[in-house]
Structures are given as C-alpha cells and as structure tokens.
From TrEMBL, chain A:
Record PANTHER family: FAD-DEPENDENT OXIDOREDUCTASE DOMAIN-CONTAINING PROTEIN 1, SARCOSINE DEHYDROGENASE-RELATED
Protein name (database record): FAD-dependent oxidoreductase domain-containing protein 1
Molecular functions per Gene Ontology: oxidoreductase activity
Any one GO biological process: mitochondrial respiratory chain complex I assembly
One Pfam family hit: DAO
Protein topology in the membrane: Single-pass membrane protein
GO annotation, cellular component aspect: mitochondrial inner membrane
Record's subcellular location: Mitochondrion inner membrane
Main location: mitochondrion
Keyword Transport: yes
TrEMBL record, chain B:
Family membership noted in the UniProt record: Belongs to the ATP synthase subunit s family.
InterPro entries referenced in this protein's UniProt entry, alphabetically: LRR_dom_sf
Quaternary context: Interacts with incompletely assembled mitochondrial NADH:ubiquinone oxidoreductase complex (complex I).
Role played: Required for the assembly of the mitochondrial NADH:ubiquinone oxidoreductase complex (complex I). Involved in the assembly of the distal region of complex I.
Protein name as annotated: Distal membrane-arm assembly complex protein 2
The gene coding this protein: DMAC2
Length: 472, 229
C-alpha cells in the first residue's frame, strides 16, 4: 500500500491522521529489518568462554596478561579475561605503594627478578608501546637504596652483598666513615655496615606502570570485566600415586563472575585460572577448595597469604637531606625517601608482629608515626627532629605468613589454578619478571628464563621455607 | 769546567677553571731533583767529565719524557680517510689515555655508554643535545668519579632533575653544564639543589632567579593603565 499522506476525501472524515500513524506502526512491525529487542543487552558481562581468567587486575594480574599475549605463538591464540572487583583501585596495593625497586635481596631468584624488572622499566616504551599513544614517563629516580645494618646483622649483609654482586647487581658496601663522608646528614650511631645500590635501584610512579600495562593489554585484545569472582565450578578425578595413595585432582571448569551492585552473574567457561588477587588471594583460593581438608595434608594446606596494613607518611622538612638522598632503610626497620624537589619526604616502618594493625580498613593511625617511626628517623637523621607531617595513607601487603616470599606456579591438586601473589611488599618491583614466569609456565610448561621453583606452592606442605632475609 | 745548572721541573697539567675541553694538556714545565743529590752531584760534575756526561744523559731523558707527554700539541686531528678507515699508525696510540670525549649530538644510548665507562682517565665529557641520554644513563656515570672534572648535559631532552641527583658520585667534578634541559620541572630550584649537592663544582646554565615571581613593589610600571594598589 503506497501511502502518500494526503487526505483522500473519498475515504471520509474522522481521525485520518491517527489512523495514518497506526497503519505506519503496523507496517513497520511487519517489514523485515526492524530492530529486534528479543535479546537483552549483555555488553557489561564478561564473555561466556575464555581460555585464561585472571582474578585481580593489579600490576601482577596485568603483567601476567601482558606476557601471555606477548609470548603466545599465534596472534589471537589465547583469549584472556581479567576480572577486577574495583575499577578505582582504591584498595589495591599497586597504587598505594611507595614504588621502590631494589636488588638488595638474599635470594638469587629475587635479585634476578628485580634486575629484569629494572631493564623492563628502562625500556618500558619499547615493551608497552601503543600506536598513537604518548610515551610513558615513569618518573624514575635512580637514587638507589641504602640499607643500614647494626653489629649483629653486619655479617648477613656482607654475605648478601656477595650474592647480589654474583648475580650482577651493582651494590657496594660502606663503612660508617664512608657513610658520614658521603651523606653528612646521617648519624652513624649503631650502624656497623651499609650497602648502597649504585644502579638500577630507586623509585618510580606505580600508577604510570599500571596505566601503561592497562592500555597496552587492552590494545592486545585482553578482555576486562568489573566484577567479583564468587564461585568456581570444578570437576574432580581420583588418581593413585606410585605409593598407591588416593589423590583427588580438581580442575576448574567455570568461574562465576558477579556484577557490581546486582545479583547478576556470568559463568565463564575457562581452562586456566590465575590467582593474582593480592591481599585477598586466600579467599579466592578457599573458593577453589584449597585448604579444605584435614590439617597436615596437602588438601588441608591453605594459601598462607593475608592482608597486612602498612602506613606511609609524608612530611616536610626544610633542612632535610639533599637531592642525592637514596631510599634509606634504617636498622630499626624505618625507611624514608625524598618526594619531589620541595623538601618533602615519605616513609614508614613495618610494625613488629605484636603490633600489627587490624586490616579491616585502610584508616591511618597517626600515633604510630609519633611513637614508632619518628623517634627512629630523628635518631638516624638529626635534621628530622623538626619535621611536619603533611599527609598519610595506608595500603595492604599481600603478606605471606610462611616465609614472606611470593607464591608462583600451579597448585599441586587444583591443577589449573596458578598463583602470582604473596609478595609481601615487593610485588610491584617483581611484577614484570613474575608475569613472564607465569606466562612461560602456562605456555611452555616450565620456567624458561628465571627459575622460580623455590616459589611453588608445594613448599607450604613440605615445610621448606624460602626465606628472604632483607624484607622491609 | 762547570756545566750549566739546569733546573728541570716536570709538572702534570694543572686544572685551570677557564680552560675548555680543547685546551687540556697545556703547558708542561720541567721539574727538579732532590736538594742533597743536587749538591753532591754538582760537586762531582765540577770535577769529573764522566759525571757531567751522566748528568747530561739524565737531562736528555727527562726532556724526552716531557716531550712524550706533550707530543699531541699543535698536531692535526686524526681523521678517517675517504673510505672511513683510520691509518695503521692510529694503532700505535693504544696506550694513550683518552682525556676528553665530545659526544655532542651523538645517538649514544644506555648500552653505548659501556664504551665510555672503560676510560679510567676521562676528564671531560660532553653529552650536549644527545637525544637518547636520559636519567638511567646518568646513573651509570659513577665509575668515572675519580677522573671526571667536566661534564656537559646541555640540551639533552630526556634528562630530568631525577637523573641529576645521581651526579653526586662525581666528587671531582669542577664544571657542570645543565642549561636548556626541557625535562627539568623547575630549573631554578634544581640549580640550587645541584649546587648544594656538589659544593666543589661550578654549576652553569640556569639562573637561580628563573621562575621566581616579582613581589608587588617590584612590578614593572605599566604606563598604559593607571597605577593599581
């Protein structure tokens, strides 16, 4: 019916215009090619299938995603989904970090990870280049770390520096006299030995790294989803070991991702799950059934990672140490570094076990600075007696209560859950190396460049501690 | 027969603050023997020809040493020929320590500095306008601390105040040029902080008053508009 819109007198009076619009609507609904609202909008949901699901979108999760896409043998060969609960990263350890990188560890693996991260950061614009995006400026301060040791720790420091030099870190030992010579603002009371990193050590802006990773990883085709992982659906398989013991191996088949502020969830079918949830990794592990068994058995070994709250304070001190100041870590565990050109400093101190603050929230305890941090700072740097605190914040360590070192690699029983967590305060500086190691483990089946076997989950059951002596 | 007494003083090139990279290894003045030896030898020379001849020989040796040290004065630059090859005589100069390197406008980067850091007697280094020299590169310069006296970073687009902080290892530095660094956020303040960091060094390039705002009483008089409060 070709309708021209003219009122034809022959059809008579009445509501001709109303009838016209009615007829128009009817025709529209019959003709093909009209918009069909039969299916609901699912653009906010994650995809239904994904090869790898990474739980946690902080620097470690994004690093694993980056290396998975970088090392895949065919472009588009692996579909990766990153699930992050909080897009603002308000509680994520990455953004709240002090941003330091140093090679002064006692374990060779940690030193190698840091060395690789330093070269990653140095060439960051080659690794994370995105077409038409401006180059990243990490604001890296190559000022180094200065670790001070008292009489009783001096021997350990000496042997650590030997290992560090063997691995290729540029660290030198300094006596109290040399310290006073180089840094006249330091008081060497109680200091027997110091180790000073000359190259590849310092601090940078962690947000910039996070942003850079995020935009690169998106450009490589990784899917992002804001949601919370609430359930794993897995299948089990009974197998016999060589000693005729029954072992139940589990394999996660589905991840249920719940959307924010709603009950809606999406089951994502996947083949590999990576636990990079930082301070909340233990909850994710518990969802997968890790630790549900009689204590003392492999099934009953929980992931020993828990959130620990750490405070960072910013203060102003006009007569404080000058431009050459490294990040100084005192014998008491207090540390500080410069922040910018304007005589501002930031620092803090790790509390002892008995004084651990409640990790329920991220509120700052200012008394802690007055009583536990300031006295040590003022002792070490007399100029800090007249400082004035400007601001402070708190962040979480994903603290490994077993041996304060990371957990990397697959779980022995839940065979397709890989860990990249538990770094207890040095996750940011080791993220590039750990991401590469996990990607190698998934794609090649074993560690190719840096061997992180001492960081596997098995050590919790076997009781073999991979202890790091130089934590801050 | 008294041989003319020649007093020789051999002196290493002294640092003179106004000299630049191209005028190092300046005048070398000969130097003298110990007092006791002098009187004894002088006495013997006045009485024996052989001793005179010996002293003449020793004098010749000292003079040839001085000439050796000054042998590059007034010489031409050693350049490659039209095929880009250096003449084989260049190989004779293997043992000569390199005192000054001018790498201005050069594409040297972090890995390329490996070559410069081997020069244990480098006194003057110019990295002006090098596009790839950044803060990471500056953190590598500390092996030159014993000898480096002059460093120029003028016009390097990637050097910021964070890299300048690592220069405090270079305690023998006497002249540092940090003019025209676009990546430095506050040049005036940086100049002051670098001067505090290196007290024996003359830091050139930025006027510390740059970036300061004039006080209300110092505002320039504006003739067009009536005077404000």
């Amino acid at each position: 019916v070709a309708h021209t819109g003219r009122t034809v007198g022959r059809l008579g009076e009445g509501d001709w215009d109303g009838k016209v619009s009615e007829i128009k609507k009817k025709i529209k609904s019959i003709l093909p090619g009209t918009s069909c609202d039969l299916l609901p909008d699912t653009s906010h949901l994650p995809p239904e299938h994904s090869d790898v699901v990474i739980v946690g979108g902080g620097v470690l999760g994004l690093s694993v995603a980056y290396w998975l896409k970088k090392l895949e043998s065919r472009r588009g060969g692996i579909r990766v989904l990153v699930v992050e609960r909080d897009y603002t990263y308000s509680q994520a350890s990455t953004g709240l970090s002090v941003g330091g990188i140093c090679q002064q560890f006692s374990l060779p693996e940690n030193i190698q990870l840091s060395l690789f991260s330093a070269s990653f950061l140095r060439n960051i614009n080659e690794y994370l280049a995105v077409t038409n995006a401006p180059p990243l400026d990490l604001q890296f301060n190559p000022s180094g770390y200065l670790l001070l040791a008292s009489e009783k720790d001096a021997a350990a420091m000496e042997s650590n520096v030997k290992v560090q030099k063997q691995e290729g870190a540029k660290v030198c030992l300094m006596s109290p006299d040399q310290l006073r010579n180089k840094f006249p603002w330091i008081s060497t009371e109680g200091v027997a030995l110091a180790s000073y990193g000359m190259e590849n050590e310092g601090w940078f802006d962690p947000w910039c790294l996070l942003q850079g990773l995020r935009q690169k990883v998106e450009s490589m085709g990784v899917f992002f989803c804001q949601g919370e992982v609430t359930r794993f659906v897995s299948s089990s398989q009974r197998m016999l070991t060589t000693d005729d013991e029954m072992v139940i191996l589990k394999r996660i088949h589905e991840v249920h991702v719940k959307m924010d502020h709603s009950l809606e969830y999406q089951p994502v079918e996947c083949s590999i799950v990576i636990n990079a949830a930082g301070a909340w990794s233990a909850q994710i592990a518990a969802l997968a059934g890790i630790g549900k068994g009689p204590p003392g058995t492999l099934q009953g070994t929980k992931l020993p990672v828990e959130p620990r709250k750490r405070y960072v304070y910013v203060w102003h001190c006009p007569q404080g140490p000058g431009l050459e100041t490294p990040l100084v870590a005192d014998t008491s565990g207090a540390y500080f570094r410069r922040e910018g050109l304007g005589s501002n400093y930031l620092g803090g101190r790790s509390p002892i076990e008995e004084e651990e603050p409640d990790p329920e929230n991220l509120e700052v305890d200012h008394d802690f600075f007055q009583e536990k941090v300031w006295p040590h700072l003022a002792l070490r740097v007399p100029a800090f007696e007249t400082l004035k605190v400007q601001t402070a914040w708190a962040g979480y360590y994903d603290y490994n209560t077993f041996d304060q070192n990371g957990v990397v690699g697959p779980h022995p029983l839940v065979v397709n859950m890989y860990f990249a967590t538990g770094f207890s305060g040095h996750g940011l500086q080791q993220a590039p190396g750990v991401g590469r190691a996990v990607a190698e483990m998934i794609l090649e089946g074993s560690f190719q460049t840096i061997d992180l076997s001492p960081f596997l989950f098995n050590r919790f059951y076997l009781g073999e501690k991979t202890q790091e002596n130089n934590t801050m | 027969m008294a041989a003319p007494w020649l007093s020789l003083r051999l002196v290493a090139p002294m640092w003179n603050g106004t000299r630049g990279i191209h005028r190092l290894g300046g005048a070398v003045v000969p130097e003298g023997n110990q007092k006791k030896e002098r009187t004894m030898l002088q006495f013997l020379t006045n009485h024996f020809y052989d001793v005179e001849a010996l002293r003449g020989y020793l004098l010749q040796r000292e003079m040839s040493k001085v000439h050796m040290k000054n042998r590059f004065r007034d010489k031409e630059w050693i350049r490659p020929d039209k095929y880009g090859h250096f003449s084989p005589e260049f190989w004779n100069f293997r043992e000569v320590p390199v005192e000054a390197v001018d790498a201005s406008d050069c594409e040297i980067n972090y890995e390329g500095l490996d070559n410069l850091l081997l020069l244990k007697e480098l006194q003057s280094l110019s990295l002006q306008r090098c596009p790839h020299v950044d803060d990471w590169c500056l953190s590598r310069l500390y092996p030159l601390a014993d000898s480096l006296q002059e460093l120029s970073l003028a016009g390097c687009p990637r050097v910021s105040e964070r890299g300048l902080a690592c220069l405090h290892h270079l305690q023998n530095l006497r002249r540092l040029d940090i003019s025209d660094l676009p990546a430095v956020s506050n040049p005036g303040l940086t100049q002051i902080l670098v001067e505090e960091m290196l007290p024996n060094c003359k830091v050139v390039g930025v006027d510390w008053a740059e970036g300061l705002k004039l006080g209300p009483e110092e505002q320039p008089q504006d003739t067009a508009s009536p005077a404000l409060a």
